[in-house]
Design brief:
Layout: H1 11-21, E1 32-36, E2 43-47, E3 55-61, E4 68-75, E5 81-87
Antiparallel strand pairs: 1-2, 3-4, 4-5
């Protein structure tokens, strides 16, 4: 059964569009990583978001010393993430 969302599109068509734009693959993409803070040296587990794309760059603060990192995440075709952190501004 298809249901309308009130604006003329149906739920099935929306799901098909999203599946084409954001394929789920086999569901094995990495969703967390342990990195070493470039400031204090602490091992910190961070969450990863495979839905944000195969190549990501963003700023995140160390949960131990609160210094900002530049986080770089690159996903390969199998969903494995290569994650690196550097001191912000390096």
């Amino acid at each position: 059964m298809r249901s309308s969302n009130g604006n003329g599109d149906n739920e099935h068509d929306q799901r098909e569009f999203l599946d084409e734009e954001f394929p789920l693959g086999d569901g094995t993409a990495d969703i967390e990583a342990v990195v070493e803070c470039p400031y204090c040296g602490a091992a910190v587990e961070i969450a990863l978001d495979p839905g944000s794309g195969a190549s990501q760059d963003y700023v995140e603060d160390c949960e131990v010393c609160c210094q900002p990192w530049q986080v770089t995440v690159r996903y390969d075709d199998e969903g494995h993430a290569d994650v690196s952190v550097t001191a912000l501004g390096e």
